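About this split. The held-out portion is used to measure sequence recovery: a designer receives only the structure tokens and must propose an amino acid at every position. Recovery is the fraction of positions where the proposal matches the reference. Here is one held-out target exactly as it appears in the evaluation file.
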């Protein structure tokens, strides 16, 4: 089955169908490996990383985002990859020191992007500078 057909079957409502997710993980990986120079290869890996997150395979997702970020320097979603790595460390793996470093790295490597701004805001929250003003607390 091809990737487009699998993508059309991927969701039941808002939930990813587990069997289709597994098939897409393989299909995206195979496509990128067999056609590394194809314009869709980095997008396939980006979608694969997202599926890894949805499957709870957070360490593998971080590695996929890292490989994609570093391996495709012209990919337009590189800032997203950097930010999503930090987010996975922060929210899913609960590794605050690694998350903080990854957020700062995102801001340093991709200055002036919305992702850099989000990364810096996340660090501010982590450092307690993003706390709500006293008058807004319940």
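Reference sequence for scoring:
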């Amino acid at each position: 089955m091809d990737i487009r057909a699998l993508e059309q079957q991927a969701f039941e409502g808002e939930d990813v169908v587990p069997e289709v997710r597994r098939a897409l993980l393989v299909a995206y990986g195979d496509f990128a490996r067999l056609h590394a120079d194809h314009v869709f290869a980095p997008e396939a890996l980006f979608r694969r990383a997202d599926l890894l997150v949805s499957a709870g395979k957070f360490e593998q997702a971080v590695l996929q985002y890292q490989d994609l970020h570093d391996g495709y320097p012209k990919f337009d979603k590189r800032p997203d990859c950097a930010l999503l790595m930090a987010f996975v460390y922060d929210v899913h793996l609960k590794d605050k020191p690694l998350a903080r470093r990854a957020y700062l790295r995102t801001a340093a490597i991709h200055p002036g992007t919305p992702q850099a701004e989000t990364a810096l805001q996340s660090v501010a929250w982590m450092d307690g500078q993003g706390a709500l003003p006293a008058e807004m607390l319940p």
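Annotator remark: The beta strands are 11-12, 15-16.
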